[in-house]
Amino acid sequence: MKKLFIFLGLALLLCTLTACGKQSAARAERSKPRVSITSDSVTLRRVPAANAMIEPDGTLKIDDVALPQPDEKRAQLQLLFGHLQMLRQQAVAEAKPDPDHAAIPVATTPEIEQLKTELLQEIPPLQAYADSFGNLRAERR
To answer: Where are the domains of the chain?
Structure first.
């Protein structure tokens, strides 16, 4: 009987350690810098910085505060948004169904690279999010 309790205790400990390992991996994945592309916004994430968001009209927000941009920069942000949306639509159309609705990794294009480089140079608050562009993720929703 004593051996049964020891065996059950070890089994419970093993299950607990396995669950903690899965949570750690998920937490590590969430903390990576990335660009999340949804149907209505592009969000640049970088822990511990606040999220930056590009809206369809070219509005740039950091921590939900709109940063005023000249019309030229706003047009570039709007163009970047459009390119990322096309990339997302293509990725979602080609992806296999996923019941977990996991984000789909996508590769950048030369047009996105060029716009990103220009915008990072010309908009200083965006420079903190440069690493995020190395991990583009198309959200299924």
So the answer is: 1-30, 33-138
